[in-house]
Amino acid sequence: MKPILQTSDLSIAFGGLKAVDSISLSAVPHEITTLIGPNGAGKTTLFNLISGALKPNSGKVYLDGKDVTRFGPAQLQQVGLARSFQITNLFFEMTVRENLRLAAQILEPVSHAFRPLRRTGRAAQKVDELIERFELQGKMHEQVGYLSHGEQRRLEIAMCLACEPKVLMLDEPTQGMSHADTDETEELIRSLTDTVSILLIEHDIGIVMSVSDHVIVMHQGQKIADGSPAEVRANPAVQAAYFGHG
Amino acid sequence: MHDRLDISMRANHVLFAVLMGVGLICVALAVAMDDMFYLRLGTEALILGGLALSVDILLGFGGLLSLGQALYFGIGAYVSALVLREVPSFWLAMGTATTASLIAGILGGLIANRVRGVYFALITFGMAQVVAKVVYNTRELGASDGLIGVPVLEIPLGIVTVSAGNPAGFFMLTLAVVIALYAAVAYMFTTPFGRVVIALKANEKRVPFLGYNTWAPRMVCYVVAAVVAGIAGALYPMLRGFVSPELMFFASSGNAVIMVVLGGVGTLIGALYGAVLLTFLKSIVGSYTEHHLIAIGVVFIGAILFMPKGVVGVVKPWLERRLTQSETSSASSGDRTSGENS
Ligand SMILES: Nc1ncnc2c1ncn2[C@@H]1O[C@H](COP(=O)(O)OP(=O)(O)O)[C@@H](O)[C@H]1O
Ligand SMILES: [Mg+2]
After folding, report:
1. Residue ranges making up the domain that contains A81
2. Number of domains observed in the structure of chain A
3. CATH assignment at residue A210
């Protein structure tokens, strides 16, 4: 199938450190493609390159066949790419609903920018839908700074969905969550593939194996393996570098 | 139920109504006692309140400290004075002053919006100083003396004609302008655009990842702030009959920042409370001692230490709780009756 997101030979170096070294990957529509690798492998940096937070030294990024390498974050978001952050990155003084409303109002035409906030319409509908789907009804008027860690992480995902993206990039969405929350979030992510294609960074090997359609293993900036969860698990290079036994 | 941001804005409106109510009572008293001095002082406070409002647009919502907002106030005042000396028309003066501050705001915004934080403060300070010095040294603009001889204006407003020489009449006119400015700015911050501006102040780095341009909203904010200051400035020569380069100096810009901090940053209405407090304080203390700046300084320090959110911040949290409660109870009773309103 034609990939929805593709990178070719994407590289960036910080000083002498090749944080991302010639990475080519492709993500299939409505699948979950998971990036794994030890801390410092370059996963978040790769996310930054794809999402326009950093500009690569070389290589290309394609979204739906279109070259988006030089796009900034806002432009990329407008063509259907949304990302979350490893370190929760929300508007902490604003309430849950205000956060979601802010993210969702991009759905409305620019000509509405100076009209009163509507209680109906696409943005309002989207907010209600997300509050329900992410079970945030009881918290919608709470300031985000006062939410539990797990709730904040869930809102982080919901924020990305508000704009109805084609590709959703999630950077360790379950990080620091309780077991119960992790299981729930895993299920939630799985259910999202109806509407989006997902590029996931995940630490928890159990989740990786159960949730992914495709796994890419990074080590010291390079891609060392690429395949189905079972293939990757059996790969000797991966076992040596990542699982630390083999 | 409404968002916190809406509740907060409504609390501002309540405080605005309180200020207007008290203001009108004072005006009635002043008229009854035939006290022109305090009426004119009150008018000046409102005009300076417009400048302070402009500072709060940037500081309280855009998160940008301008130390040169008097630049646009001064441009409005000078353009208004220049026009009025040729053609004594209120509407022409207001129109040209608005246009001039709009253009100046766009130019200034293109320069200042390239930087943030302390650099923004320094650039706005620098721009105002440069223009003030140019005006100070331009003979055609009256140089250090400023422009004098602005005629007393007769302002036709449909059915009535207000004379700028009539303290009560001109106070009411100034009040109407300030109400319009406050209402327009308050409205702007409740729109989707306003939400993006508020988000930029809260977490600038996240905003582009929601698909929003970060430059344009800041630019619009800056230009709106410039126009608000310009319109307020345009009223100044009508009240005083002259303009001088001091209007653009740092003392003016700095005073406006003090007013906002004193009144409450990010509340819009705090700017007006601060302007009234500072203007009257200066006048009253100034009538006892020449060293009134010392007293003002002490008050300012005290205010920051004991009222970090300004005068408005003392009552606003209580007011917000009241508004939320009344809304929750009316929403639940509304549910029972119609089940409609959210
Ligand atoms: N902006 C940066 N400047 C310098 N070094 C960086 C920067 N971002 C990441 N790095 C380095 O790049 C490497 C990869 O980091 P990162 O992408 O965060 O790894 P991962 O997400 O896989 O844990 C690390 O050694 C990190 O210190
Ligand atoms: Mg990382």
Report:
1. 5-92+163-243
2. 1
3. 3.40.50.300
Residues in chain A closer than 8 A to B205 (CB atoms): 89
Do the Cβ atoms of A214 and A187 come closer than 8 Å? Answer: no
* Interval B207-228 mean pLDDT: 96
Predicted-complex ipTM score: 0.93
How far from the centroid of its chain's Cα atoms is residue B177's Cα? 11
Cut 0.90: pTM above it:
yes
CATH number of the domain encompassing residue B199: 1.10.3470
Pocket of ligand 1 (CB under 6 A): A 14, 17, 19, 37, 39-45
Report CA Rg, chain B: 21
Helices (H) and strands (E) in chain A, counts: 9, 10
With CB atoms and an 8 Å threshold, state whether A113 touches B202: no
In a domain, residue A122? The reply is no
| A interface test, pick of B209, B220, B340 with most A CB neighbours within 10 Å | B209
Q: Does B228 map to a domain? A: yes
Beta carbons within 10 angstroms of residue B169's beta carbon:
17
> Which secondary-structure segment (H or E) carries B7?
helix B4-32
Rounded distance, CA A11 to CA B281, Å? Answer: 63
Choose which residue among A14, A83, A203 to substitute to test ligand 1 binding: the one with the highest number of ligand atoms within 8 A of its C-beta.
Answer: A14
Chain B residues whose beta carbon lies within 8 Å of the beta carbon of residue A72:
208
Instruction: Find the domain containing B232 and state its range.
Output: 2-316
Mutate to test the pocket of ligand 1, among A23, A34, A45 (most ligand atoms within 8 A of CB): A45
Q: Is residue A99 part of a domain?
A: no
Is the pLDDT assigned to residue B337 strictly greater than 50?
no
Considering just the CA atoms, what is the radius of gyration of chain A in Å?
Answer: 18
pLDDT attached to residue A20 = 96
Test B212 with A51 for CB contact under 8 angstroms. Answer: no
Residue B333 resides in a domain? no
What is the domain count for chain B?
Answer: 1
Residue B39: inside a domain, yes or no?
yes
